[in-house]
Amino acid sequence: MSLKAIALAGVAAVLTATSASAMVTSATERAELANVAVTQGFAAFVEEGDLLKTIGVPAWQENVTYFAPTTSALRDFGAENIADLLKPENEVELARFIGAHVALGALPTAQITGHFDRDDSRPNAAFRSATGGLIKIEDAGFDLEVNGHEVVSANMRVGGALVHQIDGVIGG
C-alpha cells in the first residue's frame, strides 16, 4: 500500500470517530489531546478537540486546504508544547497554530505550481492562511516545500477538503 493510501486511510478512520467535547479545560484533557496529536496526527488532533471552530472553519469543508503536519512532525514539536497551546489562556495562540496550517480555497499542487513566480531562482508562490499568515510554497526540485517543510503526501481528499501532509509544523 502506498504512503498516500496509508495516510488517507488513517485520516478517513479519524473522521468516522466520534468527536470529544468542544472545550479542553483540565490538564488531564490537554495532556490526552496532546497525546492524540503526537500518536495519531493532525487530523485526529483537530477532530478530537473540535479545534477547527477556533478559526471559524467547519470541519473538512470544501474549498479549504490543510497543510497537515505528519505525526512525526507533531512528535518533534512536542506534546508539552501542544498541551500548552490547549490552555484556555492560550486560545489566540491555538487559533494561530491551527490557522497557520489551513488555507481557504482548494489548492491542488497543479494549481499551486501554476502560480509560481518563475523569475525567482527558486520558483515559489504565496497564499494566505485562514488566520492571515503567509504560506509560502517553493519548488524544491522534485518536491514542494511549504514554509520550508517538505510535502510528503499531496492532494488527498478528506470530505470536501484537500490535504497535503508536510514534514514539519508551520511556525513551530
Number of helices: 7
Shape: globular
User: Helix-strand pattern, N to C?
Assistant: HHHEHHHEHEEEEE
* Major β-sheet annotation: 7 strands, mixed
Topology:
Elements: H1 3-16, H2 27-40, H3 42-48, E1 64-69, H4 71-77, H5 79-85, H6 91-99, E2 102-104, H7 109-114, E3 124-128, E4 134-140, E5 143-146, E6 149-158, E7 161-166
Parallel strand pairs: 1-7
Antiparallel strand pairs: 1-2, 3-4, 4-5, 5-6, 6-7
Helix pairs in contact: 2-3, 2-4, 2-5
Short description:
The protein has 172 residues and is an alpha+beta fold.
Q: What would your notes on this structure say?
A:
There is one protein chain. By secondary structure, the protein is α+β, with helices and mostly antiparallel strands. 37% of the residues lie in helices and 24% in strands. The chain contains seven helices and seven strands, in the order αααβαααβαβββββ. It has a seven-stranded mixed β-sheet. β5 and β6 (149-158) form a beta hairpin. α2 packs antiparallel against α3, α2 crosses α4 (71-77) and α2 crosses α5 (79-85). The chain starts with a helix and ends in a 6-residue tail after the last strand.
